[in-house]
Design goal:
Strand content: 5-15%
Radius of gyration: 43 Å
Number of helices: 19
Order of helices and strands: HEEHEEHEEHEEEHHHHHHHHHHHHHHH
Helix content: 40-55%
Number of strands: 9
Shape: rod-shaped
Length: 535
């Protein structure tokens, strides 16, 4: 129920929307506020406002039509210049007009922000706070406070907004001020007129657009504050572990991971910069020379961790983990392998002569810490027959050029599991026999077995003539070398094995790709003992 007085009705229309846990104090300095743990009645609040022996205050509900900025007397912002700067800052979020009031006999200031319509209370608190912080103001009790405040969310108990005293109470020392902060009276009618004038001058479209941004900015600040203590402890733990270094064997992986974490999270490094950071810190850590068992391959270990750490950690302060490029992790690995292959080519292009394409590919794989298969997948970076016209040409020897001119093996036949087509050799199926030799066999409306009994037999041994072999040349050459190493043959043993089988030739270089396949066949069925004289 509203009071009979029109001034009381107007005052309660502004400040009487939420009357839970109102405030009360004797009208004396300093004020001694207490909270009424019930919902105040509007008429009772107006009666207490009229009482010259009391001071009353209210809190904010879920929505509000105003805010105020409290500037204490002895604070650094309680002056005309600071108030002007605050007004200029508020204009950036659409608040064009404010209403300054002297809060009490102490001389403190309340700068009211009237609004024509209600807005969410917490959003308004956030946007005003972030606006002033962005303009260099410090929100600090005793200097500058904002009502409504950005309260915390209560889990077990509802937390109220901070309360503030009502303006212009009799004998409280509160009065209206002009733009130069000079007193101009304490009449409620003037206060209401100025209030309506200020409310109608706000740019609500701009303010409503700024509200969600203020709340999001507040959320990010709160998140950084929560993480700051954890991040500080994390960084201290990493620094302590790295500072102690190696104290025994078997600690390389753990220490390199700690160094990589620190470089990625707190230094914001990645790629080659992270590799260099890991190597520099690791090699200068205590105990590295004495206990680290991976000194020869420290760069390789650093590259491995520099590739994996960005998938698990990201620079501190960023909002979320960077998303991988289209294609997922496989695309990331492929791009990283291609980068390492290009770097390896640049290192060995001028410093090492290229004798054969095969040796060049293996050397690239060794320097790039990659597989030969991956090197051949990126042949456009280095292979003379496939390198792009914009790439730097590769100088090859005569022997390498002869190797390039050799016929290339045909691709593997289609996979029936993927093509869903059964590929068979001619002459095996009944239909082939019917079409080719039906008249010679005098077949009349009966089934046909074919020209032979039993299942189809394997192909004859490979020879130096015939269709290209299915196995790639490089793979076949590697398998032959592996067999020779398994047999522990010397060069003379290999020559003795080759001469009777390949018309006196005694070197692998003298064999073509078909003869190399035939040699592999012989080695697979051989027992490993040179039988030139024994078999």
């Amino acid at each position: 129920m509203l009071p009979r007085s029109e001034d009381g009705q107007q005052l309660l229309s502004i400040f009487g929307n939420y009357l839970w846990e109102t405030l009360e104090s004797p009208n004396a300095a300093p004020a001694r506020w207490c909270t009424l743990n019930y919902e105040q009645r509007p008429r009772s609040l107006w009666r207490d406002w009229l009482d010259p022996h009391k001071l009353v205050g209210v809190r904010f509900g879920h929505t509000t039509k105003y805010a105020l900025i409290d500037l204490d007397t002895l604070g650094r912002y309680c002056n005309a210049e600071a108030v002007t700067a605050i007004k200029d800052a508020l204009e950036t979020i659409g608040i064009a007009r404010t209403l300054p009031i002297s809060s009490s006999v102490s001389g403190g200031l309340h700068v009211y922000i009237p609004l024509p319509t209600e807005v969410p209370t917490f959003d308004l608190a956030c946007v005003v706070e972030q606006c002033l912080i962005a303009q260099g103001f410090e929100i600090e009790k005793g200097h500058l406070e904002i009502f409504p405040n950005t309260k915390t969310y209560g889990v077990d108990k509802f937390i109220e907004y901070n309360g503030h005293r009502l303006p212009l109470q009799p004998q409280s020392g509160s009065c209206l001020l002009d733009d130069d902060l000079n007193p101009i009276g304490d009449r409620l009618s003037v206060f209401f007129a100025n209030w309506d004038w200020a409310a109608q001058g706000q740019d609500m479209e701009m303010l409503r657009a700024a509200l969600p941004h203020g709340r999001e900015a507040r959320k990010q600040v709160s998140r950084r504050r929560r993480l700051s203590k954890t991040a500080t402890a994390w960084k201290a733990d990493l620094d302590d572990e790295i500072a102690q270094g190696w104290t025994g064997p078997g600690q390389t992986n753990r220490l390199i991971k700690a160094i990589a974490e620190r470089g990625r999270v707190f230094e914001g490094l990645d790629g080659s910069d992270l590799v260099t950071y890991i190597v520099d810190v690791a090699t200068s850590s205590p105990g590295y020379e004495q206990y680290c068992g991976h000194q020869p391959d420290i760069y390789k270990r650093a590259r491995e961790w520099a590739r994996s750490i960005p998938n698990l950690y990201w620079p501190y302060g960023t909002r979320e983990k960077p998303k991988p490029p289209p294609g997922g992790k496989n695309a990331v690995r492929a791009a990283d392998a291609r980068r390492r292959i290009a770097e390896a080519i640049a290192k060995i292009r001028d410093s090492e002569p290229i004798t054969t394409i095969r040796n060049f590919a293996h050397r690239i794989a060794e320097v790039a810490c990659s597989s030969v298969k991956t090197v051949y997948k990126n042949a456009d970076l280095w292979h003379p027959n496939e390198v792009s016209v914009t790439a730097e040409p590769i100088q090859v020897s005569v022997e390498a050029a002869m190797e390039l001119s050799a016929p290339k093996p045909e691709p593997d036949p289609p996979n029936p599991d993927k093509q869903q087509v059964l590929h068979t050799r001619g002459g095996i199926m009944k239909r082939d026999l019917l079409e080719v030799g039906a008249e010679e066999k005098n077949i009349n409306n009966r089934g046909v077995r074919g020209d032979f009994w039993g299942l189809p037999q394997p192909e004859p041994e490979p020879s130096s003539q015939g269709p290209p072999p299915d196995i790639p040349f490089d793979e076949c050459y590697s398998l032959v070398q592996r067999k020779i190493q398994q047999f522990k043959w010397q060069i003379e043993d290999l020559r003795e094995f080759l001469r009777p089988r390949f018309e006196g030739r005694s070197s692998l270089r003298e064999l073509n790709e078909y003869e190399l396949v035939k040699l592999l066949y012989f080695l697979q069925i051989h027992g490993g003992v040179c039988t030139q004289c024994k078999a």
